[in-house]
Write a structure and sequence with these properties.
mainly alpha, 10 helices
Length: 171
């Protein structure tokens, strides 16, 4: 069913001629809706053990959503696929490609932290990911996320240490 959804007008835009992409039969889909269709299909293939199909769909979605706000969604799903294939190092390498200047950097770092704590059992690397978020994008929200992450793995003593440096004033 999801495979057939990709064939509907308006779902794919990469490689579609301008005349087709703007035609009256195009479905009114948001970028997020389209990305969700791709990610659901990739996850479905993966759960069925159809890794070649999942990889092909991942390549299509990378081309489709690169440079868009959904790029990080595709990146995280790609990392999940690598993990399911037993390629934890590759998943981490993919997520490390997100530059600190990107607005999606925190999401990529949080996905990395999740991999470190669940697959590597490395609490220090988990905490370091959240610290790097604050180092590169200091905000009250990011300091709060750092404190919560440290509390989750180290307890209240470490959370208190995270707040020794006050967050910057709102701009």
């Amino acid at each position: 069913m999801l495979e057939e959804t990709l064939k509907l007008p308006g779902i794919r835009t990469v490689g579609v001629q301008a005349k087709q992409a703007q035609g009256p039969s195009m479905l009114p889909m948001t970028l997020g809706d389209r990305a969700q269709i791709f990610t659901m299909l990739i996850r479905s293939y993966s759960k069925l053990g159809r890794y070649d199909d999942a990889t092909k769909c991942m390549q299509d979605s990378t081309a489709e959503f690169g440079g868009t706000p959904e790029e990080v969604t595709v990146l995280v799903v790609n990392a999940d696929l690598a993990i399911q294939k037993g390629e934890v190092d590759q998943a981490l390498s993919m997520l490390k490609t997100m530059p600190p200047t990107s607005p999606h950097y925190p999401a990529a770092k949080m996905a990395m932290a999740d991999i470190y704590v669940k697959h590597r059992k490395d609490k220090r690397a988990f905490a370091r990911c959240y610290k790097e978020i604050v180092d590169h994008q200091p905000s009250a929200d990011n300091y709060l996320i750092l404190g919560d992450a440290l509390l989750a793995v180290h307890g209240t003593q470490i959370k208190a240490e995270a707040w020794t440096e006050p967050p910057p004033p709102p701009t």
